[in-house]
Amino acid sequence: MMKLWSALGAPGRLQFGLAMGLAAVAAIAGVVLMGLSGWFLVAGALAGVAGAGHSFNHLFPSAGVRGAAFTRVLGRYGEQLTGHDAILSLSARLRPRVFEAGARSRRGLSPMASADLTALVDDMDAAEGAFLKVVLPGIGVISGFVVALGLALASDVVLFVLAVLAAALAAGALPFLAVQAAQRRAAVLSLQADAARGDVARLIENATELDVYGALRRYAGEAEATLAHWQKESEALERPFRGLSAILSAVGVGMGVLALWRAAVTQGDLPMAAGAALALMAAFEAASAMLKVMEAAPKTKAASDRLADRLEGGAAAWDAAPETAQAIDSVFPLEVRGLTVSAAPGAPQTPVVSFRIEAGSVTQLAGSSGVGKSTLAEALMRLHPVAPDMLSYGGVDACGVRIASVLERISMSPQMPAFLPGTVADQLRLAKPEASEAEMRAALEAALADEFVFARAEGLESLIGEGGAGFSGGELRRLGLARALLAGPELLILDEPFAGLDKALADRLAARLSDWLAGGQRAILILQHKADGRGWPQKTAFSVVL
Ligand SMILES: Nc1ncnc2c1ncn2[C@@H]1O[C@H](COP(=O)(O)OP(=O)(O)OP(=O)(O)O)[C@@H](O)[C@H]1O
């Protein structure tokens, strides 16, 4: 948790500190309340028995009891408020940074697998909950014990020594060993849980299609059995903690009895012993309540560590170091010399290619399905590691250039662009947040998307639903193209831009893109199955056939 918090630059320091302070105040007030009540009841009763009830001062102890009760309630309330506030400030920094680090360190443009995404979200939930479930109660338990042991010392030294030993063993060593033992099992369980959740996520994602083949019922049965097994394993992990929790409550009661027994045999101060007895019982009870959720400790620790590692390894391993990176003024000429890459470790190598892209040109990278066109294009954007001397921008070897500065200059319009639910304007502004309406309109026109966007009454404010709902595949692709154009790249990579378009529409799109190229400062790279010369100025169009 600390590692993760520091990796995030220690957000919400004040709220975290306040919440911890208030947790300690609430716990101390709770133990004081019990101790003072015990002392008050017994001292009052003894005074009554001795016939001195009328001279016994009820005022201060009863005010003390009420004060402790108030402080405990206010402390708990404040702890909840500031604790949740602290977690919100952590989330506000954690979530974007983790997703950013994930996107930066991933290869290619393919979206994160749903199983990975579910595991990541679970980790974030667990790490965020750690503070409220483990850290704050832990502080409360320690503070409560300090006060209860202080009262035990004030009552009887032997009681104090025995209480320290009992606390160290039952509330310290045993839970520590249990957490250690659970840690290994929790790690295995977490892997099983990831796999089970991944299965369910894939099932939900593909439910409609699986149902068409009648496979949904079979796979749902298997997923259900896996989840049931995982649930049973989780319960097995919780069992020792529940046992320890019961032991701790019993030890607390035992300490209370011991305090009273010691006072009786040593003729000690009975009211003080009663106060110490109740305080010790309250402290052990609080530790017992915390132990019930201590099985979460190994899980939350593992989750926080995994997230901290993700943040630390945030940059792509093949990115140039900021201190030694070389700046580029332009990606042109973009030179490819004997370049070959693979989409992922173990994936097939793409064919070896050499070509040069100059400003003002159109290049077609043609080849059959699966040959490696998209992978090569992603490599040109530095989204895959490439060996030295295989790729350069304006004479600068790609290995020495920061990925971010390449992505400022090269945009890709993929076959299936990703959209967030929102309006058409929202999607366009993802590429250029400050884009004016006129700029958006111009980008839509260049991508031939203006016709279907402005045919709708809402125009730029038309809503795009989850997964692009409300628009056809071809329309979404042209919206993706408009967005890529709006980013203002030097090199625009188009993946199958004419797929699904009739010849007239394809020729019109080529003509619009030729206009976009007209200034001679930009270039286009087209990925398609077959090279063709449609509509491009002949002097600039050439093909690389894979
Ligand atoms: N994430 C991945 N992990 C493993 N292999 C991959 C991955 N992505 C792609 N591949 C493999 O790498 C090869 C090249 O894929 P790529 O998508 O670049 O081909 P393509 O020529 O663009 O295909 P298409 O025209 O069908 O889009 C294929 O054999 C593909 O199966």
Summary, kept brief:
The protein has 16 helices and 11 strands. The protein is an alpha/beta fold.
State the end-to-end distance: 50 Å
Oligomeric state of this protein:
single chain
CATH topology of the largest domain: ABC transporter transmembrane region fold
For this structure, what is the CATH homologous superfamily of the largest domain?
A: ABC transporter type 1, transmembrane domain
Strand content: 5-15%
Tally of extended strands? Answer: 11
Structural class: alpha/beta
The coarse overall form would be: elongated
Sheet with the most strands?
A: 5 strands, parallel
Radius of gyration based on Cα positions:
34 Å
The unreliable regions are: none
Q: Helix tally?
A: 16
Number of domains: 2
On the 0 to 100 scale, the average pLDDT is 87
- Percent helix, as a range, is 55-70%
Describe the structure.
It is a single chain. With 546 residues, the protein is an alpha/beta fold. It folds into 2 domains: 2-312, ABC transporter transmembrane region fold, CATH 1.20.1560.10; 334-545, Rossmann fold (3-Layer(aba) Sandwich). The chain has 16 helices and 11 strands. It has helices at residues 2-7, 13-49, 59-105, 114-155, 157-205, 207-212, 216-265, 270-291, 296-312, 373-380, 403-407, 424-431, 437-446, 450-454, 473-486, 503-517; strands at residues 334-339, 353-357, 362-366, 391-393, 396-397, 410-413, 422-423, 463-464, 491-495, 523-528, 541-545. The strands form 3 sheets. The chain has a 5-stranded parallel sheet with strand order 6-9-10-3-11, with helices on both faces. The protein starts with a helix and ends with a strand. The structure holds adenosine-5'-triphosphate (ATP). Adenosine-5'-triphosphate (ATP) binds next to helix 10.
